C-alpha cells in the first residue's frame, strides 16, 4: 500500500491555514499586517506627494517599512500554505523572503541621507532589493493564479497586487509624478489592502488529501 498527496480545490468558505500551518491565527495576523502596511503606505504616499521625488522623506520611509512587513507576512503565508505548489516553484516565495528583508534594511539605513544618490556603494547594491522584490511579487502572483490553490478573489488579487510596480512606473512615465503618486496609493489600497482584509476576515483552506491504493 502506498500513499500519495494531492492538493484539492480551495474552498472560499474555509480558513487559509493549511495542515502545513500549525496556528490558523497566524494567517489572520498576516492578512492584518498586509492590510495595515498597504493602507499606511498608501496614505503616506498621498501626504508626501511628489516630494518623494525630491529626496528621502521620513513618513514615506517609515510607512514603506510597514508595507514591507505586510508583504513579508503574506509571502510567508503563501510558502506555508503551498500557494505556489509543492515543486520548484516554492523557490519564488523563498527568494522573496530574502529580498524583502533587504528592502526593509535599506529603508532603515536610509535615514540621514538626503537622496538615494548619496548612498555609499553597499547601500546602492542593497537598493536593488526593492525593485527585484516588487518584480518578484508579480511573478509570485502569476504563479499563484496558475496553480489555482486559492480560488475566487484570492486566486487573482496577488497577481493584480504584483502589478503595482509596473503600473506605477507607467503612470509616472505617461502621466507625470503627481498622477503616479495617486495611482500608487489607489493600487495599494484597492489591491494589497483589499487582499489583506480578505485573508484576515475570510481565509481559505488548502486541503491535502491522502489516497491509498
Structural features, described:
- The structure is a single chain.
- This protein has one domain (3-212).
- It contains 8 helices and 2 strands; from the N terminus they run βααααααααβ.
- The protein has helices spanning 24-48, 58-81, 91-109, 121-126, 129-147, 153-162, 164-175, 177-201, and strands at residues 3-7, 208-212.
- It is globular.
List strands and helices in order, with pairings.
Layout: E1 3-7, H1 24-48, H2 58-81, H3 91-109, H4 121-126, H5 129-147, H6 153-162, H7 164-175, H8 177-201, E2 208-212
Antiparallel strand pairs: 1-2
What keywords describe this structure?
2 strands, two-stranded antiparallel sheet, 66% helix, 213 residues, disordered C terminus, mainly alpha
Instruction: Specify the number of helices.
Output: 8
Sheet of most strands: 2 strands, antiparallel
Structural class of the helices, strands and pairings?
mainly alpha
Order of helices and strands: EHHHHHHHHE
Beta-strand share of residues: under 5%
- Mean residue pLDDT: 84
Shape: globular
- Percent of residues in helices: 55-70%
Q: Count of DSSP E strands?
A: 2
Radius of gyration: 18 Å
Quaternary arrangement of the chains shown? single chain
Number of domains: 1
**Strands ordered across the widest β-sheet:** 1-2
Poorly predicted runs are: 1-22, 206-213
Terminal-residue CA separation:
6 Å
